[in-house]
Amino acid sequence: MDDVQGHRGVNNARRALRWALEGSRSPMETNVAVIFTLPLELGGYGFCHPTLNYVVRPTPEEYPLCQAPYYSVDVCWPRQMVALEYNSYMEHMGHVAFDHDGMKRNSLEALGWKFIEVTKGQLSGDALDVLARQLAKALGAAYSQSDPGLRDRLLLELA
């Protein structure tokens, strides 16, 4: 960024980079993480930064509780053992995907993880606020509602 100092948009890009998260495998994973981690004054909910696509590896003692040797979690807070999965209608509604998702959820919950599923329909309006409250409870974090106008602008920008 130093090489382009003085060019149009550099300052905005610098500010945006402060909130960038690595490891996303889809635009919606990115959107979910951004909505929950941006500070309130930018339209987010201000939760601590998660790890994207974190791999949970059961110990040998835990293998009998699991259906797979590891699980990749879309948006994860490992320290708090909170797993948030974005389930698109396209990728997660067939019977094979539905079965896999259920086994993954059951296995992670048996290991002590708190598991939250998210769909596109939950990412706006009152449903988003309920989801944020659920996430705050799972994380043991305070819930603060962002300004609805700022949040709506953020959601439009992310769409």
TrEMBL record:
InterPro entries: Restrct_endonuc-II-like
Name of the featured protein: DUF559 domain-containing protein
